[in-house]
């Protein structure tokens, strides 16, 4: 007995999908495509945006990336034009628009005026004008990027006050006037030794230097060395060099 395979045609409506690629994350691409697939037969599947920033959407594989070029609202305008074209010239009766841009409410209403069943896809809340203007709305989960493995924190090296003081002494000793401005010292320490103000145990270079008896900072914010002199009365004292 010969068995015949009966193929039933897919009578579901053909669904044209238009995605605002600059308004939604490409991480949502698979969810958007799945939502559109559940609505009917596959029709146009287009995503709009500046082509130089569409690599994530291109990687999805089943979407046609439409380059809207750079420019304010360029992607929105091109999407609206081609959606209307699909309805009025291409005969599309079900159009899915994936976006969270409230301005697409105008497009949704105009398509509905022409008898098109408009399905919104996105992450909009119930009060979003675009969502309200659609015939139906499919909410998808917001994408949260989670790194596969967070890098282990790198401990900052301990601040070596004696070494930093020695570097400062050397810098002052090599300067022509045997002194350095606070700003010049800060730049020197950062450029030469990679030591910034943020690494200091004090709030500023001035405070740090004033806490060290080897240095003095005058009223003009010039840093000088304090040189030791032989004691005169049995105790040590310092003088500005």
What do you see in this structure?
The chain has about 240 residues and is an alpha/beta fold. It folds into two domains: about 15-140, Rossmann fold (3-Layer(aba) Sandwich), CATH 3.40.50.1010; about 160-240, Arc Repressor Mutant, subunit A. The chain has eight helices and ten strands. The protein has helices at about 30-35, 55-60, 75-90, 105-115, 130-135, 160-175, 180-195, 205-210, and strands spanning about 15-20, 40-50, 65, 95-100, 115-120, 135-140, 180, 215, 220-230, 235-240. A six-stranded parallel beta sheet has the order 3-2-1-4-5-6, with helices on both faces. Strands 7, 8, 9 and 10 form a four-stranded antiparallel beta sheet that branches. The protein starts with 13 loop residues before the first strand and ends with a strand. Pfam families: NYN. This is NYN domain-containing protein. It comes from Roseicyclus mahoneyensis. InterPro entries: NYN (IPR021139).
